C-alpha cells in the first residue's frame, strides 16, 4: 500500500497525548475530522494506523489527539514523523487539479517545443503554487501554476506544456 504525507508532527502538546502538526495537504478540513484513519511513519515497520479523536487549530498548526493515545509518553516518539494518508483514502480530484506527487518529476516544454527542465518541487505561497523547474546549466525557473502559464499537463506522457511569459525567465 502507498502512503502520502498530509502533515508532519513537530511536537507534543500538553500531557494528554496531543501532538502539534504542520499541514502539508490542501485538504485539511476533509483530512482532519474526528474518526478519520491516518498513519504515522515508522522507519522500521509498517506505518502505525491511528484514528483521530480530537482536532483543534492553534494559529497555523493543528493539535491532534488519537484514539488510544492518552498520555504524552505514548506520543513522544512520534515527534518529527510524517502523518500520512493511504492511497485508497485519497480524494478524487476534479479535472485540471493534481497532487504534488503527480507534477514533481514531469518534463517541462515551452510553446516552441523546447525542453526546459524537470519540475523538482512545488512551493505554496497562498494565491497559487509555484512550480520549481530544474534546468541544466541554468538557475531554476519559477513558474506560477496559473492558466496563463501552464497550458497542458499530460500525466500519461510525463509532460507539461507552458507559455513562457515575459519576465519569467530571468
UniProtKB/TrEMBL annotation:
Tree of life domain: Bacteria
Subcellular localization(s) per the UniProt record: Cytoplasm
GO BP: any one term: ribosomal small subunit biogenesis
Gene Ontology terms: cellular component: cytoplasm; ribosome
Domain RimM N-terminal: 6-88
Domain Ribosome maturation factor RimM PRC barrel: 102-168
Keyword Chaperone part of the UniProt annotation: yes
Any Pfam family matching the protein: RimM
UniProt record similarity statement: Belongs to the RimM family.
Comment, domains: The PRC barrel domain binds ribosomal protein uS19.
Name used for this protein in its record: Ribosome maturation factor RimM
Biological source species: Liquorilactobacillus oeni DSM 19972
Organism ancestry: Bacteria, Bacillati, Bacillota, Bacilli, Lactobacillales
Amino acid at each position: 500500500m502507498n502512503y502520502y504525507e498530509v502533515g508532519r508532527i513537530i511536537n507534543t502538546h500538553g500531557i494528554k497525548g496531543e501532538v502539534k502538526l504542520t499541514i502539508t495537504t490542501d485538504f485539511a478540513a476533509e483530512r482532519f475530522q474526528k474518526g478519520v484513519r491516518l498513519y504515522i511513519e515508522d522507519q522500521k515497520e509498517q506505518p502505525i494506523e491511528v484514528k483521530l479523536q480530537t482536532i483543534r487549530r492553534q494559529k497555523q498548526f493543528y493539535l491532534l489527539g488519537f484514539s488510544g493515545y492518552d498520555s504524552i509518553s505514548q506520543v513522544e516518539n512520534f515527534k518529527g514523523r510524517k502523518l500520512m494518508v493511504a492511497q485508497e483514502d485519497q480524494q478524487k480530484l476534479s479535472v485540471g487539479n493534481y497532487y504534488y506527487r503527480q507534477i514533481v518529476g514531469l518534463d517541462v516544454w515551452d510553446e516552441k517545443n523546447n525542453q526546459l527542465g524537470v519540475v523538482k518541487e512545488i512551493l505554496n505561497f497562498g494565491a497559487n503554487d509555484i512550480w520549481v523547474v530544474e534546468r541544466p546549466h541554468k538557475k531554476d525557473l519559477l513558474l506560477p501554476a496559473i492558466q496563463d502559464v501552464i497550458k497542458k499537463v499530460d500525466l500519461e506522457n510525463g509532460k507539461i506544456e507552458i507559455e513562457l511569459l515575459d519576465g519569467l525567465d530571468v
